[in-house]
Amino acid sequence: MTIAVNAIFFNSANLEGYGHYTLSIFHILVKQHPDHHFVFIYDRPHTTDLITGPNVLSITIGPAARHLPGFFYWYNISAAMAVKKIKADVWVQPYGFCSQTSRVPQLLVVHDLAFKHFPQYISWMQRWHYAAMTPIFLKKAKRVVTVSAFSKQDIIQNYASLNLNPTVISGAARVGFSPITWEEKEQVKEAYTDGYEYFLCVGGIHPRKNMIHILKAFSLFKKWHKSNMKLVFVGRLAWQYQDFLEKLKTFKYRKDVVLTGYVAENILQKLTSAAYGALYVSDFEGFGLPIVEAMQSGVPVVTANNSSMPEVGGDAVLYAASNNPESIAAQMQILYRNEQMREKLIQKGLERAQNYSWEKAAALFWEEIIATNAVSS
């Protein structure tokens, strides 16, 4: 069997959620199924093949699929022709979009329907595209995968007429996310926060990640506790980030806020493991991988009580209302003042993180690939 994989988000210089999910699964599948061929299709030149092996081929097909004209041409003409030429049996589409013209059976991954819940966070053109095309993509795909029970129900309810039954395949934390020694923690803190403890917030800086309310919560926390605690944001400036940067300029505790920008995987792992606590209080998430990464690293988590996050965290994390800075600050205060609770959450988090496994995800994903291929057999 020849499996074509859409690799347009395989960018080693800026790899984020969708890319991590797909790469983690296919790293395993390529090794487990050496008798099958995997063709990773990029839309622009790349310096590093992130997955290699004797049964792996990487090809680049332009134009870059980053704006609507290029997007339509790539999916429906250039990439579709390439997939036909290599005689692919299945075309895996990990990013919520698929080709309307290809006759190759497509396995579609839809991580979430954030555009329906928070349309104000994307441009009018993106809103139009998602609203018009998502039902077409879902109907075209032979199989649909999503990453949480929440997202599954969201898809079913919003597209009831399509009679969909998506398969839930959740992500997991990579092996490198694990507890580190006291000495290692001190080294990380010396490098990033002048040796002080810090709360960590991971994610691209854009409105849905709720960074401004986290700033306000941190301000309340600092007023309540005259500590040297820092707040570290790890992630790229994604979109609509100007308001956040402007507020940060006049923020009373600006000197206690650290923006690292996008960091390499090994640095992210160290920053996560050395944190006093992790804050992941988004307005909406299809899954919330940083929650699992923090739990597996032995770091207590404050997350939001919306969308998929209670499903991911269970009783191993603290919950806050994402639109209420006082609610977030109150949970930060619990971590700071109640050492017994903090230790309890750390242990529960380590146990819960074991529920998530890339090996399990890969096995389920392979079943979906087989089922997608069977449709055309």
What does the model show?
The chain has 377 residues and is α/β, with parallel strands linked by helices. It is 44% helix and 15% strand. The chain is built from 14 helices and 13 strands. The strands form 2 sheets. Strands 3-2-1-4-5-6-7 form a 7-stranded parallel sheet, with helices on both faces. It has a 6-stranded parallel sheet with strand order 10-9-8-11-12-13, sandwiched between helices. α1 packs across α14, α7 crosses α12 and α10 packs across α13. It is globular, with a radius of gyration of 21 Å. The N and C termini lie close together (12 Å).
Shape: globular
**Assigned CATH architecture of the largest domain:** 3-Layer(aba) Sandwich
Sequence of secondary-structure elements: EHEEHEEHHEHEHEHEHEHEHEHEHHH
In DSSP terms (H or I, runs of 4 or more residues), the helix count works out at 14
Summed up, what is this model?
By secondary structure, the protein is α/β, with parallel strands linked by helices.
